[in-house]
Amino acid sequence: MNRVTVFRPALMLSIVAILWQSVPLPTIAQRKKTRKDIPAPQTTRKHNPNLPNVVILATGGTIAGAGTSSVGTAYTAGQLPIESLLQAVPEATKVANITGEQVAQVGSQAMNDEVWLKLAKRINELAKKSDVDGFVITHGTDTQEETALFLNLTVKTDKPVVMVGAMRSATAISADGPKNLYDAIVTAASPSSKGRGVVVCMNDNLFSARDVVKVNTTNVDAFHAPNSGPIGFVLDGKVAWYSLSLRKHTTQTEFDISNVDKLPKVDILYGYSNVDPNLVDALVNDGTKGIVIAGVGNGNLYPAVEERVKAAVKKGVVVVRSSRVMSGRTTMDAETDDKVLGTIASDEFNPQKARVLLQLALLKTTDQDTIQQMFLRY
Ligand code: ASP
Questions:
Q1: What tens digit of pLDDT does each residue of 64-95 get?
Q2: Pick the CATH number of 266-377 from 3.40.470.10, 3.40.50.40, 3.80.10.10, 3.20.170.30
Q3: Considering only CA atoms, which residue is closest to atom 3 of ligand 1?
Q4: Which of 141, 147, 181, when mutated, tests ligand 1's pocket best, judged by the most ligand atoms within 8 Å of its CB?
Q5: Domains in the chain: boundaries
Q6: Which fold has domain 29-252?
Q7: Helix, strand, or coil here: 368?
Q8: pLDDT tens per residue across span 265-304
Q9: Contacting residues for 346 by C-beta, under 8 A, at least 6 apart
């Protein structure tokens, strides 16, 4: 080979690389337009009377996300319909008869009380049907733990309810959604999953809705249960359970949302050095019914905040102390004395989960001791 034949391809490659780098990335609007063009496949599945029946309730998220680049992290969540998601896991049709409903189509950063209530009511309705054996909820991962806990406390069925998401969009290289979805369907179809409360299925692991937390912004191993670990695994299309939460859930809770169409306003206040205590008053003046403090350490409060919290409690606002620390319990009457302050300790619930429980608790009572017992029971 002479020098010219070696040189020419190298030069061509460099030119292509330079041109490639100078091509502007598509704008979000352009990406959305491309994604809408992805056609939804037709359902051709036949009912198999020998298989269990699983209903998928889809809400959007990255699992239904699409982008124009398979290698980048830029994409828009909540673009693809259920049928497209299922098309990537034809194996699932051997495990269950699958039907689906699109309950919402959002990134879970946009999740709200309205969708929570709609989901819980729909599950409660469908669970009464003898030809429904289990549920899979596809959901964005950002707020998956909040929806999971809400459902864990409000659905009234022993039938499996399995939440699933993905960290990589459906159009990404090595998308994790299809495997997660397959595992979730396997879990929902398995009679062994009954009575375990709502479960979150991510990256081969099964977590109790009570304990699961998103711990990484982008990695596929983004879900852990820092205080207790996973309660099971899905491997080779089979579910293996290892533990069972003793805390009350689903059919054992006192929360009935069948006639509820709005949840009480509960806000979270983050704790940090030198925090401005006026934030407490701002929330109170805005009509909040409950405040969760994402406190430092064992749910401790900055002194000036503590004073304002005492005043807020006297005005009837219910205040729960949780912690900004990833693991451990927020314990009663420790460095901060709940008896003196009129506050409630969140036990193992992180601030965003404590908020969910407090919203439900406030549907029933504002009594400090009664709500404290709920935080110890669920
Ligand atoms: N922002 C996305 C969502 O929560 C992230 C994800 O699903 O992983 O919908």
A1: 888 888 888 788 888 888 888 999 999 999 99
A2: 3.40.50.40
A3: 140
A4: 141
A5: 29-252, 266-377
A6: Rossmann fold (3.40.50)
A7: helix
A8: 999 999 999 999 999 999 999 999 999 999 999 999 999 9
A9: 292, 299, 320, 321, 322, 323, 330, 353, 354, 375
**Is residue 284 within 6 Å of ligand 1 at its C-beta?**
no
The SS3 call for residue 60 is strand
Q: Is 120 exposed, middle or buried (0-12, 13-18, 19+ CB in 10 A)?
A: buried
Beta strands of the chain (E only): which ranges?
A: 53-60, 97-106, 134-138, 161-164, 199-202, 205-208, 213-214, 223-224, 232-235, 238-241, 266-270, 290-295, 318-323, 344-345
Atom of ligand 1 nearest to the CA of 61: 9
Question: pLDDT at position 8, please?
Answer: 53
Per-residue DSSP letter, 66: B
Kindly tell me the burial class for residue 233, based on how many C-beta atoms sit within 10 Å of its own C-beta (0-12, 13-18, 19 or more): middle
Q: Is 62 in the pocket of ligand 1 (CB under 6 A)?
A: yes
Which amino acids are annotated catalytic? 62
pLDDT at 258 over 60: yes
Best residue among 108, 164, 176 to mutate for probing ligand 1's pocket (most ligand atoms within 8 Å of CB) is 108
Read off the pTM: 0.88
- Does the fold of domain 266-377 match that of domain 29-252? yes
Q: What is the pLDDT of residues 99-143, one digit of tens each?
A: 999 999 999 999 999 999 999 999 999 999 999 999 999 999 999
Sign of CA dihedral 115, 208, 159, 169: positive
Task: Quote the DSSP letter at residue 28.
Answer: H
Does ligand 1 lie within 6 Å of residue 205's CB atom? no
